[in-house]
Amino acid sequence: MFLLAISNYRKGFRFLLEQKLSWYFIFPIFVNIIMFYFMIKTSAYVSAEIISYLESTLAGADFWGASFLLKIVTGGLVIVFKILLFLVFAYIGGYLVLILLSPVFSHLSETTEKKLTGNDFPFVFSQFISDVFRGIKLALRNGILEILILLSVWIITIALGWIPIIGQIIAILGQVLLFLVSAYFYGFSFMDYTSERYKLSSKEGIKLIKSNRWAAIGTGFPFALLLVFNFWGIGIILAGFVAIISVVAATFTMLYLLQHKENV
What we know:
By secondary structure, the protein is mainly α. The chain has helices at 2-18, 26-57, 66-100, 102-117, 125-160, 166-197, 202-210, 213-228, 234-260.
């Protein structure tokens, strides 16, 4: 199942080009511009507030080198804040992409199946909105679960990290586990758009994807990999483009699973 999901990426990319659906790649550009704009604005605003607060707090300092110390402290705090903001942005960026592009993903998945199989799903605005909110809710749910798992792994790693060799092994295994968890939840989100169309309840969709977890991991693997190697936002930018391919690949994979499922 893992290899099937990975191989569907190649098929998905070719499908986008052959079916003249490559214009969908425009949407990640706009989403990334919006995210970077807010990140830069937030960084500038909070940095200015930090500098203003420290300047007013240390305004009465009259000892030798006070102004130099103020510049060092404010500069250091601003740098630390920007690094932390970047790390947070890098971590949640994947889920922001899933949430902001949820309407696009839902439409793309439906269009993919229609072109692939001929199955036509009449457009009903209320159902479309319901599907979009389901995608957003699932992304939020998966994000929260991933954070809880992340915290649990960190606690275990810190608690056992002092043990020679074993601590290092646990730290490495923890990072591998976290990556697989991320890939699973991302893949889960991409695959659920097809579950929506087939009127599977959230419980039924979760059951189907859980029973094919390696298909979900394979579906989310490329997207998660780009976010792991995120550098100055480049990973998120590329992940946005890969997410479009992921939806198509996930649709291929889900159609295969639905054709071969025994019980849902």
